[in-house]
TrEMBL record:
GO cellular component: cytosol
GO terms classed as biological process: cytokinin biosynthetic process
Protein name: AMP nucleosidase
Gene Ontology MF: a single term: AMP nucleosidase activity
Taxonomic superkingdom: Bacteria
One Pfam short name: Lysine_decarbox
Length: 321
């Protein structure tokens, strides 16, 4: 009989195997070098301590391999959904906005400290820029206060009625995110934080409900969770992150990939200067009716009125699929 019939080559490496994966060993070496004459207790310890003996779902070295990315994506999809179901959260209201905005007291203290520094120092262009930015932060603090007030109003409106609708969800960080979580906290209500791992770690703000605090590795999964149960989006002034999230939602609604929900842009002056929607219409890049996909507001009461006008007091099930 041909001995080659019994020869089996090692299995091929998995697709997209990580570059760091160990190369398969040639042949099947054995003998004393592979099975040294150790006491039985030491041999058993070597077995149970071997990484191959770990349960697969406890093996972090395995779970972080490149070819297991689909599994990690699935886990980031499933975990928050299971928790929201267990916590009885029916629907959410998403609050976006800058992480750099501060509450009024913090902004004033920062400005006062810089002004004292400027009084005792020679002219310094860097300090002048810091002063100008600190003065803007004092002006922008009104957005923090309105986000806080809105979250307090919407949370009290529903959660005090023991309804888990319009539960505030933010990116979990500082600034406007903190303000919204804080407003819900002050109302004695729960709120959600969807944090993300970043090169400079984004710490969660202290007002998120601990049982509803999540952390993501993948931006794509985080974005999905923002919208899967969303009944409204409230966007305060912000930078790249805020603009990215806002325009993704508008695109999903415009293209029919998600049902229409109220989108409220807080701060008319800011948004009309940042994005000239009329110019986009004039140039033919969006249709005239696309401007009706959102509305403006300047304070918490206007935001509440926009949501009430859209739903006429009857919130429906979560928008995402």
């Amino acid at each position: 009989m041909n001995d080659s019939f019994f020869i089996r080559r090692p299995p091929p490496p998995p697709e997209n195997a990580p570059e760091s994966a160990a190369e398969p060993q040639a042949g099947c070496p054995g003998g004393p070098a592979t099975n040294p004459p150790l006491p039985e207790a030491e041999r058993l310890r070597a077995i149970v301590e071997s990484p191959t003996y770990r349960l697969a779902y406890e093996d972090l070295d395995l779970l972080t391999q490149k070819d297991l990315r689909p599994l990690r994506l699935q886990l980031e999809l499933l975990k928050p959904e299971r928790v929201l179901y267990e916590q009885g959260v029916h629907s959410t209201v998403v609050v976006f906005g800058s992480a750099r905005v501060r509450d009024a007291a913090t902004a004033r203290d920062r400005l006062a400290a810089l002004e004292r520094q400027a009084d005792s120092a020679a002219a310094d262009p860097v300090l002048e820029r810091q002063l100008a930015q600190a003065r803007r932060r004092v002006e922008q603090a009104r957005y923090y206060e309105e986000a806080q007030r809105f979250a307090r109003l919407i949370s009290a409106r529903f959660q005090q009625e023991r309804r888990c609708d319009f539960v505030v969800v933010t990116g979990g960080g500082p600034g406007i995110m903190e303000a919204a979580n804080r407003g819900a906290f002050e109302a004695g209500a729960r709120s959600i934080g969807l944090n993300i791992t970043l090169p400079h770690e984004q710490a969660p703000n202290p007002y998120i409900t601990p049982a509803l605090a999540f952390r993501f590795h993948y931006f794509a999964m985080r974005k999905m969770h923002f919208l899967m149960h969303a009944l409204a989006l409230v966007s305060f002034p912000g930078g790249y992150g805020t603009l990215d999230e806002l325009f993704e939602v508008l695109t999903l609604i415009q293209t029919g990939k998600m049902p229409r929900i109220p989108v409220v842009l807080v701060g008319r002056t800011f948004w009309r200067r940042v994005v000239d929607f009329d110019y986009l219409i004039d140039e033919g890049y969006i249709a005239a009716e696309d401007i009706d996909l959102f509305q403006y507001a300047d304070d918490a009461e206007e935001i509440m009125a926009a949501l009430e006008g859209f739903y006429a007091g009857t919130p429906r099930k979560g928008a995402g699929e």
